[in-house]
Amino acid sequence: MIRVGDTAPDFIAPAVSGEAADELALFRLVEAHDAVALLFAPATFVPTCTAAFAAVRDAGWDDRDDLAVAALTGDSLYAAFAYADRFDLPFPVVADFHGGAAESYDLLADSWEGHSDVPRRATVVVDGDWTVRFAEATADALDRVDPAPVERATEALRDLGVDAARPRVDYDGAW
After folding, report:
1. Beta pairing class for 12-17 and 93-95
2. Distance (Å, whole) CA 14 – CA 74
3. Which residues contact 28 (CB under 8 A, 6 or more apart)?
4. Is 85 helix (H, G, I), strand (E, B) or coil?
5. Could you tell me whether strands 93-95 and 108-109 are parallel, antiparallel, or unpaired per DSSP bridges?
6. pLDDT tens-digit profile of 111-151?
7. pTM, 2 dp
8. Helices 149-159, 47-59: inter-axial angle, 10-degree rounding
């Protein structure tokens, strides 16, 4: 798994943002913000991952000039459309269908729930100099870890001068 202090790899992948599909280029987010939070999940509609994504949405991480958020899942762009719409996700949902971005971050699961080459559940924070400032993954995507990686990432964001609200992950929501 990628570690704090490593240089973050760049990637370009198809993504859904709002009602449009386009390519998401990480370098554009890094150049335009003080920090970028990358939220990895093996698939859309995984309850624990959805709980974390909804917590980030509710904390307002997407509505800032100093912070960008992107979710990366192992599903198709079509699943990303349905997922972003169903949960009103205001940040891009990247279709890392073949796991290329996850692999570059050493976050590719060999196998999960009968699927191979999908992202592990993880949160990575990258600063404006491409340095990984936070990286944490769960042992299994369905683990209800407390605090969740997105909650723990808040301290790294604050160290970068990004005063983002701490997300509150509710695993028992309507996921």
Report:
1. antiparallel
2. 12
3. none
4. helix
5. unpaired
6. 777 777 889 999 999 999 999 999 999 999 899 999 999 99
7. 0.96
8. 30
